[in-house]
Design goal:
about 250 residues; alpha/beta; Rossmann fold; 8 strands; about 40% helix; globular; binds zinc ion
Length: about 250
């Protein structure tokens, strides 16, 4: 069975931006893996970092299990993600463990530097994971090949200058929007935290709003837009179009 890995920074990032597409890929027989670079250690007003991390890892695992999938914590720390040797090794270890055919991660430009650094790290890890002499300090097998790599839309659907991300296509996720919401709702602690920190009590409404806007671009009720990494070494055909057919709508 081919594996798909959605590798985000914090528990709940994947659920906001790509869980609908993961649900569809799961329906098409793909094995789903969700990874996060950090354990979301700063995301609570009252619990300690260790306590909130433990809770968030449980929430992320429960979400992946909705798709019969697996969850991986890379081992990084919230608000400390940086493009460094330590983080490169953490990211490569996860990629080697999963050995995915398709990888999804953050857009290279996003509102939070943690997200942008995760995007660079995942991109690099996908590229270097098959290289025998690259040592990530853990003895895992090498990946078979460089995977397909896609970036999901930026949070809020704009880059740091407020401009739309140049996404190439959208996936019609209307049939799985309730599954996506169910996955997001596993992250119960974040609803509490965001209501406290950002006075933002619209957790699932926000997700539906983003999905609705991406859906409008492709003439669907709900959608998720992506851009494919076409750098040297990565496969360049759009395998999502091949798998999902008319649910994958290319943009002009
Ligand atoms: Zn995040």
């Amino acid at each position: 069975m081919d594996r798909v890995l959605a590798f985000g920074c914090h528990p709940d990032d994947v659920e906001f931006m790509a869980a609908g597409t993961l649900a569809l890929l799961s329906e098409h027989g793909y094995e789903i893996h969700i990874a996060t670079m950090t354990g979301g250690e700063v995301g609570h007003p009252a619990l300690s970092s260790q306590e909130i991390r433990a809770k968030r890892l449980e929430e992320a695992k429960a979400s992946a299990e909705i798709l019969g999938g697996h969850y991986h914590y890379a081992g990084g720390r919230d608000l400390e993600v940086e493009y460094s040797t330590v983080y490169r090794k953490l990211a490569t270890r996860v990629i080697r463990e999963v050995d995915p055919l398709i990888v999804f991660t953050h857009a290279p430009s996003d509102y939070l530097i943690d997200h942008e650094e995760t995007s660079r790290l995942v991109r690099n890890a996908a590229f270097i994971a098959p290289i025998p002499l690259y040592d990530c300090d853990v003895s895992t097998k090498l990946t078979d090949c460089i995977p397909y790599l896609y970036y999901w839309n930026a949070f809020g659907l704009v880059d740091i200058f407020g401009r739309p991300i140049p996404v190439q296509f959208g996936i019609d996720i209307s049939s799985v929007i309730d599954t996506k919401e169910k996955m997001l709702l596993c992250h119960e602690s974040q609803r509490e935290w965001l209501a406290h920190h950002s006075k933002w009590d619209a957790y699932t409404n926000n997700m539906r709003e983003f999905s609705k806007k991406d859906g409008e671009r492709i003439g669907a009720e709900y959608g998720e837009c992506f851009i494919q990494h076409l750098g040297e070494g990565h496969p360049k055909d759009n395998i999502l179009k091949e798998i999902l057919g008319t649910l994958c709508v290319e943009l002009d």
